[in-house]
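Inputs:
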Amino acid sequence: MSLAGALLSGDVRALARAISLAEDRDPQATELVAELQPHTGHAYLVGLTGAPGTGKSTLADALVKVIRDRRQTVGVIAVDPSSPFTGGAVLGDRIRMSRHTLDKGVFIRSMGARGHLGGLAAATREAIHLLDAYGRDVILVETVGVGQSELEISTICDTVLLVLMPESGDAVQSIKAGILEIADVFVINKTDLGGAEKARRLIQDAIALGPKQAWRPPITMASAAKEEGIEQVWDAVLEHQAFLKESGTLAARRRQRLKQEVVALVAERARDEAQRVLDGDTPIGRRLRENQNGKLNPYALAEEVLRQRAPQGGS
Amino acid sequence: MALRRKTARDDWAARYRSGKRAKETATTISGLPVEPLYTPDDLADWSYEEKLGYPGEFPYTRGVYPSMYRGQLWTIRQFAGYGSAEETNRRYKFLLAQGQAGLSVAFDMPTLMGYDSDDHLSEGEVGHCGVAIDSLEDMEMLFRDIRLDQITTSMTINSPAAILYAMYIAVGEREGLKPAQLGGTLQNDILKEYIAQKEYIFPPEPSMRLVVDTIVFAARQMPRWNAVSISGYHIREAGSTATQELAFTLADGMAYVEASIKAGLKVDEFAPRLSFFFDSHMDFFEEIAKFRAARRLWATIMRDKYGARDPKSWMMRFHTQTAGVSLTRQQVENNITRTAYEAMAAVLGGTNSLHTNSMDEVLALPTERAAQIALRTQQVLAHETGVANTIDPLAGSYFIEQLTDEMERGAQRYFDRIDEQGGVLRCIENGFFQREIADAAFEFERKLEANERIIVGVNAYKDGEGGELPTLRIGPETERDQVRRLTALKGRRDNTSVKNRLEALKTAARGSDNLMPPLLDCVKAYATEGEIMAALKEVFGVYREPILF
Amino acid sequence: MTARVLTAKVGLDGHDRGVKVVSRALRDAGVEVIYAGLRQTPEMVVEAAIQEDVDAIGVSLHSGAHMTLIPRILELLKERNATDIVVFGGGIIPQDDARELKAMGVVEIFGPGTSLQSIIDFVNHGFKGPVPGAA
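Outputs:
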């Protein structure tokens, strides 16, 4: 049986292997995802983002329980940063979801960001397609929570949960500009620490000051460690889902997502090819390496590299 | 230009610098700097009366008793237990006959984690790292022919401690003894489980309630019993520095004091029976300084912070175990030497009881021969070296006193950091201790890899690998037999009575009554440990560790 | 290809110093380490290893249950057609048990005092034993 066939028939190993191919940026992965394309489009995608330490993994674990209680299957993609020097990583999200390991309705995959700058992994999109084709009703994507990840996740997911925790300082100061607008649902986690009400008011004020949106993001309160408030968080996600469907926004969002995905793939390939051309035994590469006096014009070089692409790829 | 008068010290310093220097800098195992020489200058503002005083008197730096080992040697208390209660009973009788004065019970993992031997999760674990105790029946077998009023017993168990405590009391009752006649210690230090050993079951709040219940019960009914052995050993073994071991242990102690006061006890009612348990690691002088600093710190904390008036509340009594983590698999016989040095440090540090590890414990539980050598190590130390002839012999050493002061300062800095974060429970929640320990452990490993620290046989002097040692084996029949016995017990006992008493326990657990009386009822009806723990889990829930690396 | 390894403690004991130190060292050597935590059962370890599509599983035990739990992991890997996932172990495991486990298919057992470098070399050589300096 082909890998695609095995995956479609529910073989866990096939799914896991397919994700690995995507992580290795193996060309087989692209073919596989293309082959499985007709079987996708069913899963609902939920992103969890927020600063480190806010309890995203614990929340993900609690949400998985609620999702399973409501009889849906779920795939979790948990992304953690990789060391920029060694490339290694300790992927420590799975450990918080240990109780779901033996549940066939839950698939958990830990991914290292592997140098990808968006806070997600380059293979996150492929992994989502694969989990979708595999038949998961819900896919939770948990990000690293630093850098531009909040923005990237909004281009990938249907509903974005922004996880915060009450802090001694100003909860909103620590949220970077632009982040508030991408959150579809706010979750103030670790409410058992106190200060949650103050944080809620601050966010409410910040939303009021922001641009007017058709969807008013609810602010939910939870203590993931105590499993309190989790049903309400998921209900808020479902409300958002209903809103997107009824307003026709879901289709628009997914079209936008497809476009973003194409742009991302093109950019990745262009970047890889540019590296190959410049590092390789090509006229441009040689000129770059032999250059002694720095008089080469990067803009002109870039034009040349792009023009190289037209007939066929690199060297 | 003024002439600088050359001192004798400058003279030596010059000669030192221009001479051979194998070591540019040196640090203790925990990273504290060690100078080549200490002189009176290092103790410039130091006062004997303030810093040391006399043994048996505040601040107890020199020892908690006026006579220390001249009055009575430290208790030799070798931790032991494996297989079935019957086998361990035989080992106890052997050790008592060989001169050991107190018993120390090691339980197997299922017992430590509250599972009966027939539980699916106990598979492969029964009797392997301690004795399997499922019910009072096993406990009775464990102490058969041993008079509980003639010995003291230390039980190393934490989450289910109250249950084993109840079983021990019940065994005493069977021997016709009142609880007040029983002497011993319960480790029962749940806070360090969250921090280091990870044998936790319930969440912190109900766990603290159980600990406080035992403290209250012991305070009221068992004057010879130490309800908690506040432990640093496990924290150290998990990789902490000596300062962290000292600080985190005393911080835990303070948390128990505060919880007990909150429960309505007056500090002097229970503090005299708080005991401690430390590691004795390889850096000889650092360990001695740590023990002395510990006594001084605790005395000051109890008197000045908690207002204790009874001097017995100020006295820190502690048990020490030589560092398991310092033993090597390579050239195991060297472990005898390591243990001997560590034992000496503990004795020079004034420990009240001592366990010395056996050389083969990196591989398995000790064989009888190895256990005997470990015991003899203490006896040689006690009777042949003369170190026990005078109290706190290293007092006044410029180096030791400076190091003792430094340890105290380091611990104090940690107390401040812990307070800033809202106390011990908060720190456990946000992973402060676990991170400090993981970092220290990794740093230790890094130094070893870089050969900045030498361990003989591991990264130096690697020739001379000895032959293989015979190791103790626990056969599968241990588990089979235990399960058989357990099944038979469940058939014999009055199951209605068990059911009712477990219900009564749950009711009490939901309320705020002391849980020792209902626990005593349960164990006397031969409810199993697993059944009792399951009942409590229903009410208390289970703990999930929040933070990791 | 980034190597992926699942590390875990199987059995009831909670001594995680070793497995955490090894996990960090593997990370520093460029490995993606999925640390599955304490008190994992063989079933949980194998399921996680398959989902994460790891190259190797590293288990640490200190409770003496290694002769029950590690063979069970090997058995489960066989049942799931996943014997390409290599198994190595560490903790308190006597030498003759280590030999027996290796005969069953465990690639290497790293006893206490194993240098981190030898574990890293092991990974860099494609998880192949025997490793000088191991048990």
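Remarks. The first strand of chain C starts at residue 4 and ends at 9. The mean pLDDT of chain C is 91.
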